Amino acid sequence: MNTTEMLKDLEKIVSPDNILIDKCDLLTYARDRYPPLVFPRYLKLPLAVVFPKTTDEVVEIVKAANKHLVPLVPRGGGTNFAGSAIPLENSVVVDLTKMNKVIQLNEDALYVRVQAGITIKDLEETLNRKGFTFPHDPGSFPSATVGGSIATNAYGWRIGRYGYLKDLVLGLQVVLPTGILIETRDVPKSSTGLDIKSLFIGSEGTLGIITEATLRIFPMPEKRIILFYAFTSFEEALRALIKIRKKGLYPTTQLVVDEAGVKAFVEEGKIGEEYKGGLILVYEGLEGEVDIQKMETLKILKSEKCIDLGEDAARSFWELRHKMFPMMNVEGTYDNIDTAVPLDKAIEFYRFIKEWIEKYKVKNLGISAWMAPENVSIDMVFDASSDISINEYLKARDELVMKALEMGGTCSYCIGVGIRFSHLIKMEHGVAFDVIRAIKKVLDPNNIMNPGKWGL
Amino acid sequence: MKIAHILNELKESIILCNRCRCGFCRSRCPTYLASHIESLGARGRNLLALALLEEYILPSKTLADRFFTCTMCGYCREICPLQVDTVKIVQKIRTYLIAEGLYNSNIRELRENIMNYYNPYGKPIKDKTTWAGSIQFYKGGKTLLFGGCVYSFQDPGVLQITAQLLLKAGVKLNYLPNEPCCGYPLLCLGFQEEFEDIAKKNTELLLKAGVEEIVANCPACVETLKQYSEHVGKAHFKVLHITEYLKELIERGQIQLSYTIPLEVTYHDPCHLTRYLKKYEEPRKIIRSIPGVALKEKPHNKLESICCGGGGGILVTNPKMALQISDILLQDLLETGVSTVVTACPTCKRNIETITKLRKAKMTCIDIVELVKKAIKV
């Protein structure tokens, strides 16, 4: 590794105001949103931060990194909870946020081509002014970037109607770890061998740097309705959601919450104490389509023991859907364990989480099934102020995640592996992890791209 | 001076931000958008604040730049889901950096000008109220028109129009000969003791003049004068921005907008007026009440409006970045396709004029009272 030569090369590739090397600045890139790293004493500084403005500059940066064997860590909004953007010492952080342009909006073909560093908020505001929407709506909407979202295969509040992020990505431009530039074709699917773009969706910067993306867009919905019903338990609310889905309804947003979730949006004393679960459904689209889905949903809910929490609670949820995760930090250091299990195990896993909460005296801020009944996960807080409390938390977290794996589920349905589950990824994939390892070895022979993540 | 002592009451907020790190503040933070440097956004600054508290880093020239290069536009505080007051954190750290001697000569000169000449330009104080010379004010009137340094020295015509409008509406208006600076530059740059001293002296002056109500055109003056009561117990003046005052007079019929002005305009919300004082409807009501005037909003308006690049002392701490921020605002203004921009702050007006001239944009900027004047018979 030749860090001195690397810095010299970076200065040739980008202008001096696009490189940071001062300790002060480097410190602010030493973490993303990985919860155990609240205090600077836990952080390790990268060698430098570089801001490319073009794909060509990214190519040159990657080539220089290979030449000098200096690791690169791509970074967007720095909002990842798994530590995917945490740099190693002597690595160079590649901050993509100056590559933030809308390259082409094709209103007839319903797609938009963007540079990877544009934020979801900026993109959405630009599209909304033209009557369109890009329906990826993560909790980190104001600050997350398109590139970061794709690289973590992120999730959003509106997937029920529009599909997963991978379905919204038509094509990608990626700089491979050796500096080769590839472009996939801007078609929704092809039957010509492996789907190369899918390799990079969720790759967390380990297989290259996403520089541009072509994204599917939609007309702004004509109507949106939000329903919020209280049930006697989380389990009853979950069963109701399954009935709704079995009917063939496709809510844009679907969220099952436990008692803590209900309390967050409903005034104290407004409903009876027996209501310990909630179901939130959002429908959007053409007016007639929304109305008929609402009508069919209400028919199902009529036969359930549940009550309508009214428009205020529903609206309050919708307005707080991005802010609610940050707000939980008031109670301690917030984390989300985004486990998912096969649907027939969902209730059993929910019960396990309840026991786990008791066992470890966890401060639960809400068990939920977010956007799919399989995604049984927990919002909680822990104490990140000392090594002891952090280690206790990490041990407890592993126990919960391993239970999900044992039940045939996944460690993470939306956040990613990063450094948090690098010790568990092999357990999740089993022998198939060798395929991941082999792909990584072929594409990144010098292990330049984001080393230390995924246990690689 | 110990950093732990200075940040004592803000420590919990700083830790809170570092727990959360949502980065929502980056989305419209002017210094972040102009640079894309994490430490020039609120989230980055709060990480540095915690590192300072933990003595993980020591004060340095770069650190000073990251805290002095802030427009204090208040967007971070506005959008923060946890209501972390980063503006206050920046202000306190500036106080610490000043105590450590880490501030530039422009800041030093500004302080000396205010302390010695009672205005930031170092001009003779008697020149400040030249604009009031030919106007017949009510001596002993309880309502004071506070001119402010920027309007008085750089755009006095706006004050003359304001005085004419209010006097014509029947307001018993007075002014303060030898009016001193409100102290805003001292307050925002972190000269806490000096600011408190000025606030005390100004309060005595205003009490002696029998003032009960202050109206000012400069939003930063309004915000600062309102803060006097926190530092000086007896500073119980009612302080209003001109747009609040004018809106009432128009609604009560004391100002009649008689002429039709066929004009499409956009409005730029000054940071202090929109995010500090929450007065974004008042100017819009005034504009909409003028016959013929159509208001076309720029993409980011009201609480989302971006700073003009003139707040928080950035014009003296980092003028290059101030210009880059003005460029971002200009893009927003140009998106409207409108050629007249109305605002209600002298610094915003000057910055918009500077950037439009520099980029040869076909756009003129007028103060809201100048627009109102066009519609009345004086």
Structure, described:
- The complex is a heterodimer of chains A (456) and B (378).
- By secondary structure, chain A is α+β, with helices and mostly antiparallel strands.
- Chain A is 35% helix and 20% strand.
- Chain A has helices at 3-13, 23-27, 55-68, 120-129, 146-151, 159-162, 165-168, 196-200, 234-246, 259-265, 287-302, 310-319, 324-327, 346-360, 387-406, 425-429, 433-443; strands at residues 19-20, 48-50, 72-75, 92-95, 102-106, 111-115, 132-133, 169-175, 181-183, 209-216, 218-219, 223-231, 253-258, 277-285, 306-308, 333-337, 363-370, 376-382.
- In chain A, strands 15-12-14-13-17-18-16 form a seven-stranded antiparallel sheet, with helices on both faces. Chain A has a five-stranded antiparallel sheet with strand order 5-6-10-8-9. A four-stranded mixed sheet of chain A has the order 1-2-4-3, with helices on one face.
- In chain A, α1 packs antiparallel against α3 and α14 runs antiparallel to α15.
- The two termini of chain A are 18 Å apart.
- Chain B has three domains: 3-103, Fumarate Reductase Iron-sulfur Protein, Chain B, domain 2 (Orthogonal Bundle); 120-247, Rossmann fold (3-Layer(aba) Sandwich), CATH 3.40.50; 256-374, Rossmann fold (3-Layer(aba) Sandwich), CATH 3.40.50.
- Chain B starts with a helix and ends with a helix.
- In chain B, α13 (219-231) links the parallel β3 (213-216) and β4.
- The relative contact order of chain B is 0.12.
- Chain B is globular, with a radius of gyration of 21 Å.
- Chain B has 20 helices and eight strands.
- Chain A binds chain B through residues 20, 22-25, 27-29, 31-33, 35, 38-41, 51, 77-79, 95, 97-98, 119, 121-122, 125, 129, 140, 142-143, 322-327, 329-330, 332-334, 384, and chain B through 15-16, 18-24, 26-27, 36-39, 43-44, 47-48, 50-51, 54, 56-57, 60, 62-63, 66, 79, 81-82, 299.
